[in-house]
Write a structure and sequence with these properties.
The complex is a heterodimer. By secondary structure, chain A is mainly α. Chain A has helices at 17-27, 34-52, 59-84, 92-107, 114-139, 145-164, 176-179, 191-209, 211-221, 223-228, 233-259, 270-281, 292-311, 316-362, 366-385. In chain A, helix 5 packs across helix 11 (233-259). Chain B has one domain (2-338): ABC transporter involved in vitamin B12 uptake, BtuC (Orthogonal Bundle), CATH 1.10.3470. Chain B contains 14 helices and two strands. In chain B, strands 1-2 form a two-stranded antiparallel ribbon. The chains are: A mainly alpha, B mainly alpha.
Amino acid sequence: MSGTTWSSSGAKDGTDPASSARRALQHHPLLRRSETGLFVLIVLITIVAACALSDFRTATNANEAFNNAAQIAVVAIGETVVILGRQIDLSVGATLGLSAFLVGSAVGHISGPLGPVLGVLMALGLGALLGLGNGLLVNRVRMPAIIATLATLSIYSGLQVIVTNGSQLYVSQVPAWLANLRADSWLGIGPFIWIAAICLVATSFLMRMTRFGRDIYALGSNPEAASYLGIRTGLRTFQAFAFCGALAGLGGLEYTSQYGNVDATAGSGFELTVIAAAVIGGVSLFGGSGTALSAVLGALLLTEIENVLALMRISIFAEQTLEGSAIVLAVAVYAVASRRLRRPLRREQLMAQFEVRLGQLVEPPVEVATATRSSDGPALGSSADG
Amino acid sequence: MASARHLLGRWEVGLVAITIVIVVIAQLDGGGLISSYNLQTTSLNNVVLLCLAFGAAPVIMTGDIDISIVGTLSLVGAFTASLWAHDGVGIWVAAILGLLLATICGVVNGLLVVLLDLPSLAVTLGTMGAYTGVSFLILKGSAIIEFPSSLVTLGSSNVTGTPVPIGVVVLVALFAVLTYVVHGTQFGRSLFAIGGNRRAALFAGIAVNQVRITAFAISGLFAGLAAIFYLGDYDTAQAGIASDQLLPAITAVILGGVSAYGGTGTIPGVAIAGVLLALLQAALGLHGFSGEGQTIAVGILLVFAVGGGSLIRSGTFRRLWPVKASRSSSANAVIDAASTGGG
C-alpha cells in the first residue's frame, strides 16, 4: 500500500473506468492513485481467498458477495457526494428504511409494465425529498450537517415506525418483479450490479464532467474560497443532499427486494456501514477528496473482508473488531500517504506565504507588524509539522 | 466571540424555560409527571445517558467527536462482569480495572486522532466497532446476571431514608467535579481555546495535543462509569449493551449548547439538556406516546434548539459560509487554505 495515495487536486480526481483509463495513464501516474492500490488489494485478497477457501470459489458465494457490495455501493456513492462537499449525512439508513417500506408497499398496488418505472421513480423521489429536508436544515437553518442529519435520523426513523405501525411488509405483498430482482440476471449479470454500475458511471460523469461536480469539489476543498469564487454553495449543498437521499431511496427499493420482509428497523445502522465503505475507499471526511469509484471499491473491500471472515469460520464476534480495526487502519494509511504526497507542495505554499507576509511587513505600522510577526513563527513551524 | 458568549448566557435559561413549560403542560394535563415514583424511575433510566453525555462534552468542546463511547461502555461492562464472574475478582476491584480500561480506550482514540492527525469521526467509528467486537469476544453472546448487592445498591437503591437514588447522588458528584475541571481550571479553558481556534491555541502556548488526548481520556472514563451504572441499574452484562444510547447522548450535548464545531458550551447546560430530554420522554410516555413519538419529538426539539441558535448566530456571521468558516478570521484564512484537509 505504500505506493497508494490520493490525488489532492479536486476536480481532476473523478474517474470513470470506461473513458478515463487512457487519460489517467497520460495525466496521472496510475500507481499514485488510491483506487489502484485498493483495486490491487482487492485482487490480492481474492486470489489468496480463492486458493485457500474452496467455498469462496463457488458462484453462489461470488454472487452473494457482489449483490451485497452493490447494494452498499449505491448508497455509498450518494454519501460520497455529500462528504466531498464537506458535509455528512447520517440519515441515509432511515431514508433507506422509509423508502423500503413505503415504496415497497406502494408498488404492490401498481400492476403492469409501469410498475418498475414508477417504483424506481418513487424511490428516487421520496429519497430526494427526505434529502432536501436535510439540505433545508443545513442550508437555511444553518445547522452543522452532523447535527442536522442526526436530528433527521431520529425524525425519519420515528416516521418509519409510525408508517409501519408495528406491521411488516412481507414477500407476498411485494410484486413479482421486485421480489425476483435479486435472483434475476440481465445479460448474465445481476440487476443489483447493473444498478450499481449505472450509478457509478453516472456519478463519475456528474462529478468529473459537469459544473455540479467541480463545484462540489471546490466547496469541499475550501467552502469560503468557493463562495468567494461565486459558486452557489447553498444550491450545491441542497443538490448534494437530494442526490444522496435519492440514492438511499433507491437502496431502499433494493432492500425490499433483497430481504422481502421490511419492518420498522429496516436500514437502521446502515449509515455507519455506508460511511465505513466511503472511508475505506479513501474518501476524505475533510471533504474535497475522493471519487465515486473509491466508494464502490470501499464497499467491495468491506464486503469481501466480511465474506472471507465468515468463510474462515472466524467467530462472528471477532468480525466487528476486525472491521473496526480495518476502518482505523484505512484512515491512517490514507492520511499518511496523502501527507507524504503533499509535503513538498505544502513547503512551497508556506514559502510563498512567507514571502507574502514579508511583503505585508513593509506596509503596516510597526506595532501591527511585530504583532503579526510574532504569530508567524509558530505558524510556519506548526503547519509544517501538522 | 463576545456575542456567542452573550448568547450562551441565555442558552441555559432557555433550556430551563422549555423544561418548565414541559413540566407545567404535563402537570396540567394530568398523569402525575412530578411524583416521587416517576421522578425516581426517570432519573434512574437516564443516569447512563447523562454520564455518557458528560464524558462526550469535553471532546466536542475541542471540536472533535467521540462516537466510540457506547463501544467503550459495552467493553467495560463485559470486562468488569467477566472479571467478577469468571476470574473471581472482587466486584469493586473489577470495576476499578474496568475504569482503567475505559480510560485506556479513550487514550487510544486520542492518540490515533491527535498523533496521526486523523478525522475523529472516522477513527471513533472504527474503534466503536472494535471495542464492541471485543465485548462480544469476551462474553460470546452470553449474559452475566445477579451482581453483588453492593453494586446493585449503587445502581438502583435510594439513599437511606430519602427517595433520592444513590446513582443520582453519585452522578451529581461527578457533575460537580467535571464542572470544576471544565470551567474552573486552566485545562478547561484550554478545551475552549482549542475548540475555538486550534491554531491560535497553539500560538498561545497551549499543549494542544496533550489537552485533546486528555479530553478523549475523560470521554472514555465517563463511558466506563456509565458502564458501572448500567451494571448496577439493570443487573445484567451483555455484549453490545446500550448501543442505542449514543445518539441521545450526543443529542443531550448539542442541545446543551455545545457547538458541534467546538469552542462553546457548558457542563451545566448539558446537564439541563439531559434533564429536559428525560422529562420530555417521561411526559410523552405518560401521555401514551410510544417510543417513536418520543424519537420524533427529540429530533424536532434538536432542530428548533440548535437551528434557532444558529439562526441567531447567522445574523452576525451571515456572509460567512458555512458556520465553520466563521471561526477563521481573514488573517489566517491564507494558512487555512494552505493546509485544508490537514486539520
